[in-house]
Amino acid sequence: MAAFEPHPLRRPAVVTGASSGIGMASARALAAAGHPVVLGARRLEVCQQVVDAITAEGGEAVALPLDLAQAASIEAFVEGAPEAFGPVEILVSSAAQIWPGTALETTPEALDAMVNVNLVGVHRLVGGLARPMVERRRGDVVLVTSDVVERPRPMMAAYLSSKWALEGYARALQMEWEGTGVRASVVRPGPTLTGMGMDWDPAVTQQVLDEWVRWGLARHSHFLRPEGVAAAVLAAVTAERGTHFTVVEVQPEGPLPRGAS
């Protein structure tokens, strides 16, 4: 254990959903800041490519399989993550499932599956990795949610329900962990260019976007880059002790007028 004593400038981190999008960008940002990172996702071969890129840049990283829909997978991940670089000091929960659909179109089975990944799976993960943080009185947990919590969007009934529940869960953690040395932060991104939703039927995607426009929820065509959200994640976990970023919302900047520089 002595070889793994935590250092404020080198804190072992875990990032889920690390094979693409916000998770991948967060893993790379943490590694670039000097933190060894354990990447978790179902697509282990893609995670390994990210690991190779991180190590080529001088960082430390390993990839482990993780499926938040499977309790046994989460249990194995929780056991394996600390073996890589020592006790986990940072947990970034970015993995999520998203499928479009109205409330009436969403079957109970589909709702259950999304809540199982986006909430129950996260709870299992936090329970396994954050409990030792509380015992050591030091750690950071970042839960990546969505601006649908603040601005509900049509055609997203199951997803926004699961993310609302996740933010409620985060609020409970914040109250229960106050004074323990462990911070629970919410990073709430707006529309972001990630792999999520890329496998939808194009006609359904257009229907979703049309509904967002109709409700005034798509003010412009710009989307966030994952790196922009990762910057908020890094800010939350590297904030000076005594400072707690409880909720950080990140939105895409609107386009400049034509001719502006």
Would you give an account of this structure?
The protein is α/β, with parallel strands linked by helices and 261 residues long. It has one domain: NAD(P)-binding Rossmann-like Domain (Rossmann fold, 3-Layer(aba) Sandwich). The protein has helices spanning 21-32, 44-56, 71-85, 108-136, 157-177, 202-214, 226-238; strands at 13-16, 37-41, 61-65, 90-93, 139-144, 182-189, 247-250. The chain has a 7-stranded parallel β-sheet with strand order 3-2-1-4-5-6-7, with helices on both faces. Helix 1 (21-32) links the parallel strand 1 (13-16) and strand 2 (37-41). The radius of gyration is 18 Å and the shape is globular. The N and C termini lie far apart (54 Å). Residues 1-7 have low confidence and may be disordered.
Describe the structure using short key phrases.
alpha/beta; globular; seven-stranded parallel β-sheet; single chain; 261 residues; Rossmann fold; 44% helix; disordered N terminus; 7 strands
Given this structure, which CATH class is correct?
Alpha Beta
Strand content: 5-15%
Detail the poorly predicted runs: 1-7
- And the CATH topology? Rossmann fold
Shape: globular
Largest sheet entry:
7 strands, parallel
Spell the H/E element sequence.
EHEHEHEHEHEHHE
**Counting H and I runs of at least 4 residues, what is the number of helices?**
7
Structural class: alpha/beta
CATH architecture: 3-Layer(aba) Sandwich
The radius of gyration is: 18 Å
Binned, the helix content reads 40-55%
CATH homologous superfamily caption: NAD(P)-binding Rossmann-like Domain
Averaged pLDDT, please? 89
